[in-house]
Amino acid sequence: MDIRILTYNVNGIRAAVRKGFLDWLKTDPADIICLQELKAQEKDIDKKVFEKLGYQTYLFPAQKKGYSGVGILSRIKPDDVEYGQHNQLSDNEGRVLRADFKELSVISAYFPSGTMGEVRQNFKYNWLDDFLHYVTQLKKKKTKLVICGDYNIAHKEIDIHNPKGNKKSSGFLPEERAWMDTFFKHGFLDGFRLINQEPNQYTWWYQLRPSLRLENKGWRIDYISLTKNLRSNVEDAKILPQIKHSDHCPVVLTFKF
After folding, report:
1. Among the four 50, 118, 148, 153, which has the fewest Cβ within 10 Å?
2. pLDDT tens track for 44-67
3. What's 2-256's CATH class?
4. pTM of the model
């Protein structure tokens, strides 16, 4: 049995719908779709349009309107859905949502950005530490864990178009990259890099300069990570830059069970 799991920062679910997101869903891109940056309250999202396409729909918006928020669309009915990570500051911003499918658990996570200044960068560092503790403890109980999301970090130089020019940019700071090293040392694998070791594989482009996407000068900051015990189940991994409802593009992994 193959299960396709996809992650996609839609940069506003309503904006993505206006740009053809529903038509794309009709092509059956994945069985489980993890969304980030909904930028909408649940009452402002018509869940019926997703359900008509065969997707169970679970949303965890931020309390602040037009900000953050995560979701999971699934063709497979989960056994359980967990909203938040029991961290009030994170949960107020709608950053973590988990669905359990028998022995497999899938998280949609929207990591904070530090680009708005020192206060948010410090919030990001604290959030990263809390999240690492959360998933490290979680995988003791949910041993087959997949963590999808916009991590807002380019891990290695191969993951960013201009590493030298961005060495002092939030999202590529030494401390952030070191956190990624620590994260993977805690028993997680970068699903895409299990399959594809090529350069110039990006998932986000600076939207105020459209030419950067045309020239593929971007960052790989969207990941599907997995516990090591799922390594042999990964059959394929792809980045889909041709999908353009957002300044990000989807990443999809195919698992064989």
Report:
1. 118
2. 999 999 999 999 999 999 999 999
3. alpha beta
4. 0.98
d(CA 248, CA 187): 27
Give me the mean pLDDT over the 208-233 stretch: 96
Query: With helix as H, strand as E and coil as C, how does the chain read?
Result: CEEEEEEEECCCHHHHHHCCHHHHHCCCCCCEEEEECCCCCHHHCCHHHHHCCCCEEEEECCCCCCCCCEEEEECCCCCEEEECCCCHHHHHCCCEEEEEECCEEEEEEECCCCCCCHHHHHHHHHHHHHHHHHHHHHHHHCCEEEEEEECCCCCCHHHECCCCCCCCCCCCCHHHHHHHHHHHHCCEEEHHHHHCCCCCCCCECCCCCCHHHHCCCCECCEEEEEEHHHHHHEEEEEECCCCCCCCECCEEEEEEC
**Residues 219-230, mean pLDDT to the nearest whole number:** 98
Q: Please identify every residue annotated as catalytic.
A: 150
Predicted local confidence at residue 5, as pLDDT? 99
